[in-house]
Amino acid sequence: MEKREKFRWLIVLAAASGAALAEPTLEGAPRGEAGVRYWASTGDTKRSHNAQPLDPALGNPTSVLLYENLDANTLEVFGRRNFGDWFLKGFLGIGSVNRGIFRDEDFNAGQIKFSDTTSSVTGGHIGYGAVDIGRADWVFNTERLAVVPFVGYGQWSETVDAYGATDHLGFIGGDIPHNVLVITNKVVWKALRVGVAAQLDIGPRTRLDVDLALIPYGKVRNDDSHHLRTSPSDLGPVPNIVLEGEGRGVQADVELRHEVRRHTQIGIGVRYWHLDAYEGERFLPNRPDVPRLPIVELYSRRFGITLNARRSW
Description:
The chain contains one helix and eleven strands; from the N terminus they run H-E-E-E-E-E-E-E-E-E-E-E. It is mainly β and about 325 residues long. It has one domain (about 35-310): OMPT-like (Lipocalin, Beta Barrel), CATH 2.40.128.90. The chain has a ten-stranded antiparallel barrel with strand order 1-2-3-4-6-7-8-9-10-11. It starts with a helix and ends with a strand. The relative contact order is 0.17. The model is unreliable at about 1-30 (pLDDT under 50).
């Protein structure tokens, strides 16, 4: 009888062990994690200004520059480390802008267009990063959902080159060959981040991560280098048109992650960034005789798919 009882317990233990090995669960609060992420995205940057204070015969906006369909591929490293009740997380990425379109439009009063050109964006680069700190014990927690707050700092920059020009209205005197570099645009955002990080367990080894950062305040600088207008009597050395301003926006990530083996997870997600200036000025750094003008619009946005792999410990 005693041997039969022992045998029965061995069967129970073996079954429990097999079930645990067959379906491991994600760890609730590892000490840390690190990984790599690939981001395939498309984006655009638009800026315009109002020159009516100089000449009432001009439109408002006077000049509208749009860099659109800026397809990019980036690779980043990311991580998180828990320190008792506190945690530190961040990411750092670099990549290339592969292609896009640049459009430059100018208007007289009544928004009558007098100039319209398009150019091809043939390349560029993108870089970004952020560092956030939060309190793990300031948490909204249920059996499957945990939400924690954080604050941090982030930076995002993009540089693109546009070649050639198609002169749609004849204002610049004809088309410019497609092998001629006409403009380089560089935009840099520096931003305060305030947000929440949420984790929702949707299966024994599967979790949905949401990282939502609001940008209550950011600073932006946009440098335009008009390479065919570098004469001292025109715009001067590049960068020869600069916009500076302050803005706000949002940076959001949603990722579905799955544990393929203990401490190792892969994931797929979507990412959306949008930063928009609410005030700012345009000026010519080589022409102090030209007054500063108010900007009408200046924004950058980017959206795409992410793939990642990470290890926790």
